[in-house]
Amino acid sequence: MQRNTIIAMVIVAIVIVAISLIALQFARPVGGELKIAGSTTVLPITQECARLYMEKVCPCTRISVSGGGSGTGIQLVGDGLIDIGAASRDLKPSELDQWPDLQPVAIGKDSVAIIVHPSNPIDDLTLEQIAQIFAGDITNWSNVGGEDAPINLITREEGSGTRGIFEEKVMESFGKEIAGEALVKTSNGEVRAIVATDDNSMAYLSLGYVDGTLKAISIGGIEATIENVLSEDYPIIRTLWLITKGTPNTLAQSFIDFVLSDEGQQVVEELGYTKVE
Amino acid sequence: MLFSATSSILIVFFIIAFMLSEGWSAINLDFIFGLIWHPKTNEFGILPIIVSTVIVGVGAVFIALVIGIPCAIFLAEFAPNWVRNIIKPSVEMLVGVPSIVLGFFGLMLIVPFIRDNLGGRGECILAGWIILSIMTLPHVISISEDAIRAVPNSYREASLTLGATKWQTVRNITLPNAKSGILASLILGMGNAVGETMAVYMVIGNPNIPWIPTSILDSVRVLTSTIVMEYGYVAWGSQHQHALFAIGVVLFVLVAIINLMARYAIKRGMIER
Fold it and tell me: A111-237 sits in which CATH class?
């Protein structure tokens, strides 16, 4: 009986493998496959563009899009594991040393908003106050004109492009570092979810992710809006990149061209980012 | 057959060898006893992380003990069959809840509850204890119940015949005889809790630079959450990468010690009987 069971199991296994192989054969896209990963800031753009691309330009392609952060995206494309890496910060010299043939293409601009819970009475802070708060020098909302409650800081992980630009434009101008007490979240979506549920929290977030569940405060009277980012009045601004290793293959080139086309740039604007000039 | 048997050994062996070769260079006294983990400035001290891992693991198992052992005793000794047939499958169903679901539940319900009622950030040791104890409970209950049931009926009958009450029998005869199995269930639960990643990562906060916690409402980092947060952007070949592998080695050693303790407990119980 035991032998029969084993034989039956082997036959079932073979049948399953055969069926899935045949199914794969039919499902395999004729137009090829494109893998994109990296910055969660660029993620909504690549997702929407991939959807439109597969719908309108070439239905036979399969494009897989995932997050992971700018550092991850650059590393993966450098190692040749994906076709296009997405980054929301400029390439570092160390990364160019390691992979000299990386080719970045600017696809849009973004800003980083300083966000609090919508019930927070504070609407405006100076850049220096923001730096002091994130460095842990100011720990209570009452010190900046709010209620008597602790400031719960949330930050992104070290490799994040959003964190990179925040440190560069805010913290480093005042020679400060992000406090050790700040809790680390590894995606824009996670940061948004936490700030929306914690009354005393404060974080920085890609402008494209800001919605009604939280409040973006103005910096020195200048609101975080697309107009102010375009006019460069708003102090935190950065470029979004799609990166390929060497000259992109036909499909990758065609996808990047699509993102840069009028249609792709319209997606960039609709999602709350700024199009590239 | 022999091939299958050796292949599993080979897999374990290669994983250990790879982890050691990648992580060995980062393991030294400054690594184990250093107080600051700050990859940006190449400071890799994991003492606060080790301490937090042990606190989170022990606390979770303690909660699982307080709830799980009485439950196991009830199921094995007192519960009528129909009650047992309801409770045991329900408890065992807990094993099937994916850890990410538990973590999400913790983040959305337990964390805000702690923040609003007890203060602090909410994402803290206590939240980790609650989530991990939910994950360990089914193992603790299931194994302890089996251990209690394995005590020969003749022992109980002898005790009851001598005039002991049911509760006296449980306390003086059944439990002491099932001791090693119960202990093993707790130690195995501890190994589970220490190695658990996703659920605990979502509810314990993970501060930018971890410190040795002074309150159960402090946010902490554990060994697993540190690896899962940082492997994504670490540069291959950097000191940071070696440090992450070294954390893996420390975690492996910790879990191996816990498992050895469990084996010892089971073995000793068998000799006693």
Answer: alpha beta
Ramachandran quadrant class, A107 (left: phi over 0; alpha: psi -120 to 50; beta: rest): alpha
- Determine contact, residues A206/A110, Cβ cutoff 8 Å: yes
A193 contacts in chain B (CB < 8 Å): 107
**Domain A111-237 in the same topology as domain A30-108+240-270:** yes
The rounded distance, in Å, linking the Cα atoms of A61 and A82 is: 15
pLDDT at A29: 45
- How far is it, in rounded angstroms, from Cα B105 to Cα B199? 9
CA-to-CA separations, B36 to B43, B206, B211, in angstroms, rounded: 6, 14, 7
- Residue among A70, A75, A184 whose CB faces B229 most closely: A184
- Alpha-carbon span A126 to A141, nearest angstrom: 14
| Number of folded domains that form chain B | 1
Any CB–CB contact under 8 A between B210 and chain A?
yes
Please report which confidence band the pLDDT of residue B272 belongs to, taking 50, 70 and 90 as the band edges.
low
Domain residue limits at B40: 2-272
Q: Report whether pLDDT(B250) > 90.
A: yes
Q: Which residues of B touch A160 (CB under 8 A)?
A: 233
The CATH architecture assigned to A30-108+240-270 reads 3-Layer(aba) Sandwich (3.40)
For A241, the enclosing helix (H) or strand (E) is strand A237-245
Q: What is the DSSP letter of A223?
A: -
Cβ–Cβ under 8 Å, residues A126 and A221: no
What residues of chain B lie within 8 A of the CB of A94, using their CB? 235
Q: Residue B22 is which amino acid?
A: E
- Between B175-195 and B125-149, two packed helices, what is the crossing angle to 10 degrees? 140
CB burial of A127-136 (b: ≥16 within 10 Å; e: otherwise) equals: bebbbbbbbb
Contacts for A66 with CB less than 8 Å, ≥ 6 apart: A36, A37, A43
Asked if the Cβ–Cβ distance from B232 to A69 is below 8 Å, we say: yes
Identify which of A226-240, B203-217, B229-243 has the greatest average pLDDT: B203-217
Structure token digits, residue B240: 């940071």
Closest CA to B221 of B45, B95, B64: B45
Which whole-number Å values give the CA distances from A175 to A113, A170, A220, B235, in the listed order? Answer: 20, 9, 19, 25
Instruction: Out of A208-217, B143-152, B228-237, pick the least confident.
Output: B228-237
- CB neighbour class for B270 (10 Å; exposed up to 12, middle 13-18, buried from 19): exposed
ipTM for the assembly: 0.82
Kindly report, residue by residue over A68-100, the tens digit of the pLDDT: 888 889 989 998 889 999 998 889 888 889 899
CATH number for the domain spanning B86: value is: 1.10.3720.10
Q: Is there a contact between B137 and B94 (Cβ–Cβ < 8 Å)? A: yes
Domain ranges of chain A: 30-108+240-270, 111-237
